[in-house]
Design brief:
alpha/beta, 33% helix, 511 residues, 5-stranded parallel β-sheet, 13 strands
């Protein structure tokens, strides 16, 4: 994937050559991986404070020294948005934090977000050369978070970001490439303000397009706001990143449901020449078992939206506390972990994960599983709900769980769960949160758009172009529920393709 601007740092830069030569490789590889400070589990379940506290300045600089500045960095290939990872990390090592952020800003609009919620252990860090040495990889995610956080903190204090110390090479401020001026005033519409829409908007704005993002809800950020709790991703972090985007010239319009407030045809009438659809995947998905319509059974999407946007109003307008309640979350992904950990913070007496496979097969991040266990979450693995039972008033009182065992691997390589005949247990429960995925939010008023049977938009994978004229799409509306960074990768790929399409048209104009 091409970046919008030429790289502002190269491995051949003199300062990077001097930095590599300053410390022998053997000495760099002997440095232990920095450990992220965390809030104590006993305290954190009493509040929504962020669990991971971030690396200190000295921790970050020491961790950056571990990076070997590889000539063919696997970490960049493993990153869906192809961040210049050695480039920003080497700037941390020389304590030029401002330049480190500028390197990241070339390819990502959400470094503080990605540094917190991306599965680095399966992507960039999984491709780090340290794995071949049987050593822990460089803590790329934590360093990305540090870079964004230290720059945000200094900007808010009105201070200059520290760039040099006695032990670091002298830093000469290098010019930052200017934003590309627009060739022609072209209006671009983005439908949805989640990570895919924001990434697309940021890249198009850098290229000089007039970009407007339309959001159906009353807050911007999509899943970053309504789907991820503050103890994992503070709202203030998301809002700061969005304000950076607004400052770059992107217009953001909330409470606007494209397809209902006005149609896609009206977008064209308003002068928008290109449209990017990034409406996500929030359509409910249940398991189709008896009792799912009982009061007290809801999807993770509904549960987290109510908590993240309405706080404790789980059951709507009349707030109902989870204090001393029995809560079960069905599923083993990151969303399930967020939901069950939230229940602990709301005082649940018993908070359970019910998952039909073993813990080794859980798709959630290892860190999320560890945090949940530290916070007192129970894991009922190799169990699957088959029925929900009501009390005499029609409210949920219990769930019936079928015990499972692992059979042969399925198409994904994971071993398929098989019921153990006759082994069913009844477990009391007050609230069940179903977290078994969700379906795409299909766009309204676009009858000619080619769709999948699940309601997703069919696109060309290389360009993210749909079957409809002028319309591109990406993120969960195309691929189904996935990670923030994959959605951002779609947005960047679509921006590149749309820009190239406009350039081809402009070349045909004769005056």
């Amino acid at each position: 994937m091409n970046t919008v601007n030429p790289s502002i740092t190269s491995r051949d830069d003199k300062w990077r050559e001097e930095l590599r030569a300053a410390i022998p490789t053997r000495e760099r590889t002997a440095i232990p991986r920095a450990k992220m400070p965390e809030v104590d589990a006993a305290y954190r379940i009493t509040c929504e404070d962020e669990v991971n506290q971030g690396l200190s300045l000295e921790q970050a600089v020491l961790e950056a020294r571990r990076c070997l500045d590889c000539p063919d960095p696997g970490c960049v290939k493993g990153c869906p948005v192809h961040n210049n990872i050695p480039g920003f990390i080497k700037n941390i090592e020389r304590r030029n934090f401002k330049m480190a952020l500028e390197v990241l800003d070339e390819t990502t609009v959400l470094p503080a977000v990605c540094g917190r919620v991306c599965p680095q252990e399966k992507q960039c860090e999984a491709s780090c050369i340290y794995n071949k040495m049987k050593k822990p990889p460089v803590s790329i995610g934590n360093l990305e978070r540090f870079t964004a956080d230290v720059n945000r903190a200094m900007a808010r204090m009105g201070a200059t970001v520290p760039s040099t110390t006695a032990e670091a090479p002298e830093v000469v401020e290098e010019p930052v490439p200017m934003r590309q001026a627009p060739l022609i005033s072209i209006k671009i519409a983005v439908v949805g303000s989640g990570p895919s829409g924001l990434a697309f908007a940021g890249d198009m704005a850098k290229r000089g397009y007039n970009v407007t993002v339309f959001e159906a809800l009353h807050q911007f950020g999509g899943v970053l706001k309504y789907g991820i709790p503050e103890f994992c991703l503070p709202n203030a972090v998301v809002e700061y990143e969005i304000e950076k985007l607004r400052a770059s010239g992107v217009e953001l319009v909330k409470d606007c449901f494209v397809g209902k407030t006005f149609s896609y045809d009206q977008l064209h009438e308003m002068g928008f020449k290109g449209i990017y659809i990034a409406t996500g995947a929030g359509k409910p998905r249940f398991m189709g078992i008896p009792g799912e319509n009982l009061p007290g059974v809801m999807t993770a999407n509904e549960y987290l939206i109510r908590l993240n946007l309405l706080k404790s109003k789980i059951y709507g307008v009349n707030s109902t506390s989870l204090n001393e309640k029995l809560v079960a979350v069905i599923g083993g992904g990151n969303t399930a972990m967020d939901a069950v950990r939230y229940a602990r913070r709301l005082g649940a007496k018993r908070a359970m994960i019910v998952y039909r496979r073993s813990e080794e097969e859980m798709p959630a991040r290892v860190e999320e599983i560890r945090h949940a266990r530290e916070e007192g979450v129970e894991f009922l693995t190799l169990h699957n709900p088959v029925e929900y039972l009501a009390d005499e008033n029609g409210f949920l009182r219990a769930m019936r769980l079928q015990r499972m065992e692992l059979g042969e691997p399925d198409s994904t390589g994971r071993r398929s769960p098989v019921p153990v005949e006759g082994d069913i247990v009844e477990v009391p429960v007050d609230l069940v949160v179903v977290s078994v995925g969700s379906l795409p939010n299909p766009p309204k008023s676009l009858p000619d758009l080619e769709m999948t049977r699940q309601g997703g938009i069919v696109v060309d994978n290389a360009s993210m172009k749909s079957s409809a004229p002028c319309i591109y799409a990406g993120g969960d509306i195309v691929r189904g529920p996935a990670t923030v960074i994959l959605a951002m990768g779609d947005g960047r790929r679509a921006a590149q393709a749309m820009h190239e399409a406009f350039l081809r048209k402009l070349e045909q104009i004769e005056l």
